[in-house]
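Illustration 12: Orotate phosphoribosyltransferase.
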Amino acid sequence: MNKSETKNELETQKQELIAALKACGAIRYGNFTLASGKKSKYYIDIKKASTDPKTLKLIARQAAFRIKQMDVNIVAGVELGGVPLATAASIETELPLLIVRKAIKDYGTKSRFVGDIEPKDRLVMLEDVTTSGGSVRNAIEVVRETGANVKYVISVVDREEGATENLKEVDVELVPLVSASDLLK
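Figure caption equivalent — predicted structure in token form:
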């Protein structure tokens, strides 16, 4: 696929995803407090999308399309929102899955990870919605403590409120499937 064909394919994918997110009810209007603490007049509920098989499959295909162009060997997701997305993308790409827990459990293996991770690994992390990028940035730091590297974060929706810049500070590229400005048109 040449650059022009790729650009056209990405635009087609974006429009399909916007339609699917609207159809499954993932966009809600009202007064909401986000994980970042910010207030918002709209809420993007990707958990609604990831529990809808058709929308989840669409997200997985679109993420896989991008992942196949990246030099990575593991697909990772942070609990809870990133797990179904990363799982679906892992199935689509046939790359191993890594789940990053938000905290160490005090039972079982007592690990922050479900799945295998080695210092030589190169990961792409999937995120449902990025606002400031703070949640995923914490997970990136935990992964990097193992010696492994994260160069990319694929977000289903980027709210365009600083995540791109905040991730760039730690040498990670944010790859949104859709931006909030496109979604809310």
